[in-house]
Amino acid sequence: MATKKSCVKKKGCAKKAPAKKENLLVLTKEKRDKMTPASVLNSLKEGNKSFVNKGVTPKNHKRLVKESAAGQAPMAAVISCFDSRIPVEDVFNKSIGDLFVGRVAGNFVNVDLLGSLEFACKAVGSKLVVVLGHDSCGAIVGTINDVKLGNLTAMLKNMKPAVTKTNKEFKGKKDSSNPDYVRAVAKNNVVCSLDYIRKKSPVLKAMEKAGEIKIVGAYYDMLTGKVDFMNA
Ligand SMILES: [Zn+2]
Question: Structural domain of residue 205, as residue ranges?
Fold first, then answer.
């Protein structure tokens, strides 16, 4: 510490000049604003390809922490499950400052998450909303099995519309021992979340209509790490 102090006092030994904006590693507002909803979606698709095939690119977190301290301009907002096996930034080969991530067991959307998404897109300028469901989701299985446990009981009700929707469409054994049924409910849960966003947020719906944002569903495969974007 003493060396540092005396160093700062000497002429020509002052702190390094901050990096020029164009040399920053972090996603700046200028860089993000040049992206379109389609190019953001493509960046996430390419990031996932890299995650699946080569793994995550090493990131200079030390620099990213410093560079992002003054503000943020994430390209996308992702609603994902609470599940420990889906590190969202890694899955898309992204890092500090790239994504807003809202996580809740069963990746449903409620008023709090909807407000967060509106903040991300309308206030901060993110160009893409992704609802990311996944295979072998404990919250989905719990909803199917009508689990009763403390506050979990109320939380699981958020996924009930997906079970109701699936029961109308699904041919085959409708219980949690059937992986195809569990997958169908999990995928419908993503669809229900997308419906909820469009129905309950005139702000996001208008942004989508104006082409300012895209709202898409996606599904994560536990065995491969691959994300399939639904209808996108
Ligand atoms: Zn889950």
Answer: 27-230
